[in-house]
Amino acid sequence: MVRRVLALTSGRIAAAVLTVIALLALFGPWLAPLDPLATGDNTLAAASGTHWLGTDYLGRDVLSRLLDGSRVSVLGSLEVALTALVAGALPGILSVHWGRVFEWTTLRLADTLVALPFLLFAVAVVALLGNGLTQAMLVTGVLVSPLFYRVARAATLAVARSQYVEAAVVSGASTGWIVRRHVWGKILPPIAVALAQTIGVGFVIVSSLTFLGIGVQPPAPTWGGLLASDLGYLSHRPWAPVAPALLITATVWASNLLADAIRDVSGEAGRVLLDDRGARDGRPDRTDPAPAPAPAGGAR
Amino acid sequence: MTGGPARTADDAGPAGPVLEVSGLDVHYGPRHRRRPALRGVCLSVAPGETVGLIGETGSGKSTLARTVLGLVRASAGSVVVGGEDVTRHGPRQWRALRRRGVVQYVFQDPLRSLDPDLTVEDSLTEPLLLQGVPREEAAERARAFLPRVRLHEELLARLPGELSGGQRQRVAVARALVTGPRLVILDEPVSALDAATRVQILEILKELRASGTALVFISHDLGSVAGVSDRVAVLHQGELVETGTTHDVVNHPRHPYTRLLIGSAPTLYSAPADRAEREALRALLRT
């Protein structure tokens, strides 16, 4: 799958952008040229040699805050997406295979989560578990999980009732085998698209909760938090939101691009696409063996 | 058996029938609106025997096959597969039985019964891997089995969508037989194929008969069944109305429905008298 995705230009671009974002998340806090929390008199300053991206309303260096906040922003967003994936996709797949009681229970649970008021529930759970980024993101992930539940369930339903799954059952396949071998590859594209969407939504959620004092505590910086504070001073520094907005947009765009690439190369359609591209470029496809000649004894 | 596991006297199972169905009832639908699909069906298949199961659409042929395979639950009666009473088996017991490779199934539509994302090799090795055969050995056995169904080794890397209808059906037959099952149920294996490919598949099935595998050949077409079957069983509205040797059933049909089936077989020279006879038989069945 990785080789197939990287065979596409869009897949390579998405991987490159996401690698840069991941490096920022890993090393950003150490790369910050100045203390991201240090305030100064030079507020709302334009870009200069000392402050490459200017300063915010408290005189803090914007570049340092962006770099320092990248880890929390990316990790928070990933935590939301992965929690939603595990809490939603797994029961969604199993609801098709594990009998009616499990199916009914998970369906009603998903309905309940959809009906819960998002921010109120997040505040209530954080009050119960204690305030922290992990708690806030776990709660958010659980609340987003019905999206993954629905997507995974709908995709699995289409596959689980197919004859090739029945053929595997007749050969003695267990639920785990069927999911691994026949279901997962087919439901991965829609789940990847939902995951990319959720990563994007995650940035917005992190900033929304920061605004309410949940999760990341001020003055710790996040990309969403920077964007929110910059929007309050648009008349003084109209270009200020560009940097955090660009980072968020690039991450969401690359995630969507990667999801589209996964969808494009998945399954038989993906193989045909890569074969066609290989043929058009006049080179053999890198991911598949050479096409076989017509069988000697096989009547077509 | 070329490529497949050679069956010895020890693992040939008990000398009795490989399939024994007694008084089988199957119902569909919720309790207050149950409708019968099979009523009191009794059928026995001996090792190495080929039984043709014929009947029109909706007569219960596929339901009988799916009940024998544990995909549909019996309402009453008993099903004994390979000497083991499977009527009250739970999912775990069924899985254990299936992994022993006693019974296999060939679906009507090979395109839908083969995973479109798995290569021919992956599809053929799957039943072997489920039996615990190491991957390399499974691949080797799958490769060695291909000549038996007249497929070339180079097709192993292809996807089902890259094969012709006949090739796909042969892959489906190979997948069912690669584990060396004692009983194979074939659900209309040639109905979707052209005449030339149909003959080829039927020839392969005849060769398989000689290897000692018992076959239940389901079809609505008596012509396809008669050529390969030792015995024929006729299903009509969920009931087994006639069973006998292929010769007897084809040449001396007793039940009006069997006579109607034989009389309805398409011929190049269909006389008006045939039509009148068929109408008379239909009227008899309605009473």
Automatic annotation (TrEMBL), chain A:
Q: Which UniProt keywords apply?
A: Cell membrane, Membrane, Transmembrane, Transmembrane helix, Transport
Q: What is this protein called?
A: Peptide/nickel transport system permease protein
The answer, when asked if Transmembrane helix is one of the entry's keywords, is yes
> What is one GO cellular-component annotation here?
plasma membrane
User: How does the UniProt record describe the way this protein sits in the membrane?
Assistant: Multi-pass membrane protein
User: Where is the major localization of this protein?
Assistant: membrane
- UniProt record, GO biological process: transmembrane transport
Q: Which InterPro entries match?
A: BP-dependent_transpt_permease (IPR050366), MetI-like (IPR000515), MetI-like_sf (IPR035906)
* Record organism: Actinacidiphila glaucinigra
Q: Which family does it belong to?
A: Belongs to the binding-protein-dependent transport system permease family.
- Please give the residue ranges the record annotates as the region Disordered: 274-300
Query: Transmembrane stretches, by residue range?
Result: 12-32, 74-97, 109-129, 187-214, 239-259
Task: Outline the extent of the ABC transmembrane type-1 domain.
Answer: 74-259
Q: Which domain of life is it from?
A: Bacteria
Q: Where is the composition biased (Basic and acidic residues)?
A: 274-288
The record's annotation in PANTHER family points to:
OLIGOPEPTIDE TRANSPORT SYSTEM PERMEASE PROTEIN APPC (PTHR43386), PEPTIDE ABC TRANSPORTER PERMEASE PROTEIN (PTHR43386:SF25)
The protein's location, in the record's own words, is: Cell membrane
TrEMBL record, chain B:
Gene3D superfamilies reported in the protein's UniProt record: P-loop containing nucleotide triphosphate hydrolases
**GO terms, molecular function:** ATP binding; ATP hydrolysis activity
Q: What are the entry keywords?
A: ATP-binding, Nucleotide-binding, Transport
List, in alphabetical order, the GO biological process terms annotated in this UniProt record.
Answer: peptide transport; transmembrane transport
Keyword Nucleotide-binding belongs to the record: yes
> Which residues belong to any copy of the ABC transporter domain?
21-262
Q: Which family is this sequence assigned to? A: Belongs to the ABC transporter superfamily.
PANTHER family named in the record: D,D-DIPEPTIDE TRANSPORT ATP-BINDING PROTEIN DDPF-RELATED, TRANSPORT ATP-BINDING PROTEIN
Official protein name in the record: Oligopeptide/dipeptide transporter, C-terminal region
Species whose genome carries this gene: Actinacidiphila glaucinigra
Organism classification: Bacteria, Bacillati, Actinomycetota, Actinomycetes, Kitasatosporales
